[in-house]
Write a structure and sequence with these properties.
By secondary structure, the protein is of the alpha/beta class. Helices cover about 30% and strands about 20% of the residues. It has helices spanning about 5-30, 45-50, 80-90, 110-125, 175-180, 195-205, 215-220, and strands at about 1-5, 30-35, 65, 70, 130-135, 160-165, 170-175, 185-190, 225-230. Strands 1-9-8-5-2-3 form a six-stranded parallel sheet. Strands 4-7-6 form a three-stranded antiparallel sheet. Strand 2 (about 30-35), helix 2 (about 45-50) and strand 3 form a beta-alpha-beta unit. It is globular and about 45 Å long. The two termini are about 15 Å apart.
């Protein structure tokens, strides 16, 4: 766990880690399979990766982008996680369009989740193992679209399911704990004073996925990096 003075310093550290893990994966097996997250916290990291300071430090043609979760809206919608990533990062680097695999599909949220599971199997192989999954946490202790009291956090057999969001767009698509926990590395980016109480619960409270879904990842993924600002780490 690393704690930084503010979001700016946290974001620079996150961009450094992205480059590090990306280049290591490319050296090891020729490509970097990364699942991006939504929310406000990773946006500055994405913008940094698109800047001259970072963008030439990695071969974007070998990066394959997925998402840990998505709101069920087209990628042209401002509420879409994919839309944010394209605006902040992907439209500014030389990544092939074929390497960008968004979650949204027409035809309903259930069929979109099923289709994405097929995509993961095709692109990642039988193990469906990502090199890096980026995550945040919400003030209620959720991560990805694994919200308190919703069945997605209890899913054990499927890797992608339809979920219910408790704020904003209700219909969601999300990776499940088994899928996320197979990642070589999970990196949580956590900023803001409203994250201090859930962080304390995630790390030190009784394990209860129904109340604090992030624990399903935070206490079970094999390799986790926490990058926090001072406000999130206050408790």
């Amino acid at each position: 766990m690393q704690v930084f003075k503010d979001l700016d310093k946290l974001s620079h550290a996150a961009a450094d880690e992205f480059i590090h893990f990306g280049n290591a994966a490319i050296a090891d097996h020729g490509r970097f399979n990364v699942a991006l997250s939504g929310g406000s916290t990773p946006k500055l990291m994405f913008q940094l990766l698109a800047s001259p300071e970072y963008r030439d430090q990695i071969d974007w043609k070998r990066i394959h982008v997925f998402w840990s979760d998505e709101r069920y809206v087209p990628n042209t919608d401002s509420q879409s996680n994919e839309h944010m990533a394209r605006e902040a990062l992907l439209s500014h680097v030389e990544i092939p369009e074929a390497n960008i695999r968004g979650m949204y599909r027409e035809g309903g949220v259930e069929s979109a989740a099923e289709a994405y599971d097929v995509v993961l199997g095709k692109e990642l192989g039988e193990q469906k193992k990502l090199d890096l999954t980026l995550l945040g946490i919400g003030p209620d202790g959720h991560t990805a679209s694994l919200f308190p009291g919703e069945p997605a956090v209890r899913e054990r057999s499927l890797d992608v399911v339809a979920g219910i969001g408790h704020a904003g767009v209700a219909e969601r698509i999300t990776m499940t704990p088994p899928m996320i926990n197979r990642s070589t590395t999970v990196m949580f980016l956590v900023a803001g004073s409203d994250k201090a109480a859930p962080m304390k619960r995630i790390l030190h409270g009784p394990e209860n996925w129904e109340e604090t879904p992030s624990q399903a990842i935070a206490r079970h993924a094999p390799h986790i990096i926490w990058l926090l600002d001072e406000q999130a780490a206050a408790e």
